[in-house]
Description:
Layout: E1 3-5, E2 8-10, E3 15-16, E4 21-28, E5 31-39, E6 51-52, E7 59-66, H1 67-73, E8 86-93, E9 99-101, E10 104-107, E11 110-113
Parallel strand pairs: 1-9, 2-10
Antiparallel strand pairs: 1-6, 2-3, 4-5, 4-7, 7-8, 10-11
Amino acid sequence: MGRLTTHVLDTALGLPGQGIRVEVYRLTGGNRTWLKEVVTNDDGRCDGPILEGDDLEVGEYELVFHAGDYLRRQGNKNGEPRFLDVIPLRFGVADASQHYHVPLLVSPYSYSTYRGS
């Protein structure tokens, strides 16, 4: 059964990104449809798959990480507006029977992602 998961790692502190709000959207023909919102737990992960089974379809998706709120809570003093605040990650699902793990590695001045397992 296919599923979508994520987690957040704070690369500056070497810690899980706890309490980060993540919005999930499906992108279809120029339309952006909100699917759900999740919050990362103490391990920087969600308590379960974000989407799974019939909820995960072939197509394009967007995860929107509200990292600025997390960075503020960490006491990061890089001024306002933040260099990084809301981070959108767009990606495609070509085979909805597979596991798509889309993590966010974040610091106050950079971020990256990859398709994990």
